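As a warm-up, study this chain.
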Amino acid sequence: MTALVVPAYFHPAVAADDWKALAAHGSAVRAVILNSYNGPGPAFERELTAAAVATGRPLLGYVDTDYGRRDPDEVLADVDRWHDWYPVTGLFLDRVATGSDLLVWYEVVVEEIRRRTFGTMVFNHGANPDPRYAELADALVTFEGPYAWHQEIEVPAWIRSMPAERIWHLVYDTPSTLLPTSLARAAEANAGVVYVTERAGANPWDGVPGYLDLEVEAWCR
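Now compare it with the structure written out below.
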């Protein structure tokens, strides 16, 4: 079964229509990634909570790990704030390392996260990681980047052998005419959960794609 994940790196105060469009698609969306100020932000936001809850979808709190360079106490503080302030059902750990040299760092952090919280944990590597990371997370983002790079990805055998719902792709800078090609490439690469947008720039996740309806129809089943 395929589905969408939506990186909602946009605030309802400036993108209310995007949140409404997101809420209209119901079960087609596997999860919504909440990101306020590269994490939970300095304080609870009632407006963000209302918009997120209105989607009716599972919510994942965004936590930056800075490729294992961030202080673990800061990571855990973000985790605590997400669970204290928002109705999240899991976490989206961003900028996760890919190499084996940082496995121990992530093992320690994940053990502490799972001890104090609950729910789905997603690692965003943005590339193919050491396969042992799959033992720590419920899902792996093995691609994040523009359409042109997406067409050139290599897919190792261990990723092809995993359940497709555990492999996620985030693709930006994709014109509507190339949406079918991008989705076909994701399927060929064994990704079961995707998000494709025509948006680009420093934050391509600052709103939903203009072709969201077409993407849902083409991908979700």
